[in-house]
Amino acid sequence: MITALVLIFIVAYVFIALEEPTGINKSAAALIGAGLLWTVYALSSGHPALVDEELSESLVNTAQIAFFLLGAMTVVEVVDAHDGFTVITSRLKAQSLASLVWFVSLVTFFLSAALDNLTTTIVMVSLVRKLLRERNDRLIVIGMVVIAANAGGAWSPIGDVTTTMLWIGGQVTTTAIVTKLILPSLANMLVPLAIVGYSLRGKPVLAPEAAPADATFEQAPETPAFERNVMFALGLGTLLAVPVFKAVTHLPPFLGILFGLGIVWTVGDLLHRDKPWREKQHVTIAHALTRIDMSAITFFIGILLAVATLEHAGVLADVAMWLDAKIGRLDVIVMVFGAVSAIVDNVPMVAAAMGMYPMASYPQDSFLWEFMAYCAGTGGSILIIGSAAGVAAMGMERIDFIWYLRKFSLLAIVGYLAGAAIYLVETEMLSRIFGA
User: Fold this and answer.
1) pLDDT in tens, 84-99
2) Mean pLDDT of all residues in the chain?
3) Alpha-carbon distance 247 to 235, whole Å?
4) Of 219, 207, 232, 221, the residue nearest 75 (C-alpha)
5) CA atoms within a 13 Å half-sphere pointing along the CA-CB vector of 195
6) Which residues in 263-282 are b (16+ Cβ under 10 Å) and which e?
7) I need a surface site. Which of 147, 151, 337, 415 has the fewest CB within 10 A?
8) CA angle, 352 as apex, 359 and 108 as ends, to 5°?
């Protein structure tokens, strides 16, 4: 049985990694893999009642993440539909390219912690395309956006899917992940940013020429400033309030984000209640629900259920024992996980780690989980295909894989190692001071 489960998982993983050349969506591969794994496990175990109980347990854990992502994505889409992000992006102005890359990167870093790295990347790439005429200048700035978005997402419980998984799973808490990872994540961005900024010194910002108005297409009505500001503040406040909701009520984060979504929905309906349908249809929650990436949520469901099978079958525990025997050092093991996440998706990597290492041995906010959040969140910057932020930027600006490899992979590695070093030194100092 174990051999069959491992082979099925490997084949599914290969199809996930080869989504582009095969033309098969990775969500389909994940769902087929999950279905086959649970089927083989159920037929081979001889204990259908136990398997059913294990599946129900895994489904609850998976559904919490899926519902949280569904709510968070919808809130972000509503804010975007109201042009809410222009509240921030409209203030980004610079005369030199070096100043611009610093401004854009810093805004990306903090915005991705409040939203998520994928959404922030999409917003910032759209902004850069409006600010810069020369494609090479845009590529340089967008390359830094990818690194900054992943670094910013790593130190926030809602900034990256993998960090969210660890937060919802109880491996990390909001206070610990923010206070312990903000400096390593900042170093992860600042080291490559300093190098890129220095290389761009003296270069002017060349704005694109204004495009003539096209009367062929009907433009969506501009959102009034009051509505834009209200929905931006409400949406951002909802996302930031979720960790507080969890800390105060001890209820799962998915309930907090759905509660907040209900408030955003109500306020939006009140703001637009007197408008004709033609004017308000593009800003409704119903429209936002059609824009969220359901294939991404489906992928998370499939891959988390697939990994859960290996956990219940004892495969992940065996892998953890093998890594401990062959490598030994936990910090090296975690850094390898992060580096590998540049090649394969970091979601199954973190899901596997959560199954490999029990919380009885590695309790909440321990070194393993905090360092895993950093490495998995930032390791994907090493390759353009290693993170959702990188893939989004690649698709929007048609960034060549080899170009990113030559221009930014080494910078990302240097930043990755610098942040890791900061975290290890920080942990050692705190251990000596507090004996923890």
Assistant:
1) 777 776 776 667 888 8
2) 84
3) 20
4) 232
5) 17
6) ebbebbeebbeeeeeeebee
7) 337
8) 95
